[in-house]
Structure to design on (430 residues):
């Protein structure tokens, strides 16, 4: 924290090598290290600044996924940091506690930069969340779980060119958590909170445990649900997050897995991993467990948005790998939003392949899926939503505080090869 109270972080984008397997050096990229980046953490009401240095041989950017902030601080393709350059965005954290993340967003090269290892978590805290009875000791009973799949060449290098793969990107044959293959987490408390981030470029996961135990889903992308939801599965597409609280018995172990999932009527479910079962993270409980607080029955009392307040409805159709018939153009503004207003966005996937939909700057609420109220896992604040082919998602959001007619925010599919291909649009808030 500097003299005027700003919490300052340093992030250096750098190239290096990582030994994922013994005796094999893999070329990777990371922030402040060879692979992935540090967890950044700030509290609602704090001014933050990030000193970004790019030591890579090409330009990159750092986008604060899920963050409400001015467009010129957003880290999208209009804020690229050139090779050897620096950038210092600063903003006031003014949103509920949540598990956010950061990753590069350079024009047309996001898949490569993320895939080589550039991502990290950005955790936000607030007083309300502190009082929710959730495990909160970072690294002890509050665990970041960045899940990624990778594909390796015969000589152990990461590859984005997969033979016989799907055209949408890489479906890795190797799974890692926080950069570790075959990850194990020791648990020393009765309850453990996992902050799940799907940091993959293409693959979706349907998380559950091998003994089919239930857990409490307590948060989605934008923060705590109003109440915990007990379930035994949570499906996350690329970019989505969920926080879950798992109960452990002393001296036992359980495996977090990804199970066959519902991706909808896509042409090649197998190719997109809909049928896969994969080990993700093994939890091993100590023989004696420290007691944990009970998760509160009410987690958040954030006000809900009211459809009656919406002044504009926009429609977004993803079809033929384009958005409303167009592909991303850095020099074209697709939508103009008025600051301080509430809008409804109707999103639809009319392609026979998976897409999801992510909006910068805001957290939205899901009003309906095909006209019906959303399921519990979609009841909270979200910034990214999986869109099944042929289904219709009505989202409501409020654009607040930041207006700048010169600098756009993005909305796009977060399957990163689709995003790079141009399944992305730009909006300004004025
Ligand atoms: Cu996570 Cu526009 O990105
Ligand atoms: Cu897509």
């Amino acid at each position: 924290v500097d003299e005027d109270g700003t919490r300052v972080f340093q992030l250096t984008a750098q190239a290096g090598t990582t030994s994922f397997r013994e005796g094999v050096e893999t070329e990777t990229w990371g922030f402040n290290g060879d692979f992935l980046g540090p967890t950044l953490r700030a509290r609602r009401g704090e001014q933050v600044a990030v000193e970004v240095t790019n030591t890579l041989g090409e330009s990159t950017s750092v986008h604060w996924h899920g963050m409400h902030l001015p467009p010129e601080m957003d880290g999208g393709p209009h804020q690229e940091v050139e090779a050897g350059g620096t950038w210092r965005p600063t903003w006031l954290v003014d949103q509920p506690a949540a598990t956010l993340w950061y990753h590069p967003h350079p024009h047309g090269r996001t898949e490569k930069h993320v895939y080589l290892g550039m991502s990290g978590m950005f955790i936000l805290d607030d007083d309300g969340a502190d009082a929710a009875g959730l495990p909160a000791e970072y690294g002890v009973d509050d665990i970041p779980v960045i899940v990624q799949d990778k594909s390796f060449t015969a000589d152990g290098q990461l590859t984005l060119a997969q033979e016989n793969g799907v055209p949408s990107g890489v479906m890795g044959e190797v799974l890692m958590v926080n950069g570790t293959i075959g990850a194990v987490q020791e648990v020393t408390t009765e309850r453990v909170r996992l902050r799940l981030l799907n940091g993959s470029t293409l693959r979706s996961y349907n998380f559950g445990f091998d003994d089919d135990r239930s857990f409490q889903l307590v948060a989605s992308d934008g923060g705590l649900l109003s109440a915990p939801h007990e379930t035994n599965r949570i499906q996350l597409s690329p970019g989505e997050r969920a926080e879950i609280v798992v109960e452990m018995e002393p001296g036992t172990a359980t495996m977090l897995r990804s199970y066959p999932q519902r991706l909808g009527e896509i042409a090649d479910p197998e190719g997109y991993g809909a049928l896969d079962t994969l080990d993700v993270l093994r939890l091993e409980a100590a023989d004696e467990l420290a007691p944990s607080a009970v998760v509160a029955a009410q987690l958040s009392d954030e006000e809900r948005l009211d459809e009656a307040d919406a002044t504009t409805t926009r429609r977004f159709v993803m079809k033929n790998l384009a958005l409303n018939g167009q592909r991303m153009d850095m020099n074209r503004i697709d939508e103009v939003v008025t600051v301080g207003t509430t809008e409804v966005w109707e999103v639809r996937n009319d392609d026979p392949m998976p897409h999801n939909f992510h909006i910068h700057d805001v957290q939205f609420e899901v009003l309906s899926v095909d006209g019906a109220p959303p399921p519990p896992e979609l009841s909270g604040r979200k910034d990214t939503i999986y869109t099944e082919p042929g289904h219709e998602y009505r989202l409501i959001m409020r654009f607040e505080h930041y207006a700048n007619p010169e600098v756009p925010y993005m909305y796009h599919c977060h399957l990163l090869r689709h995003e790079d291909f141009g399944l992305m649009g730009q909006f300004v808030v004025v």
The chain has three domains: 7-126, 142-290, 307-429.
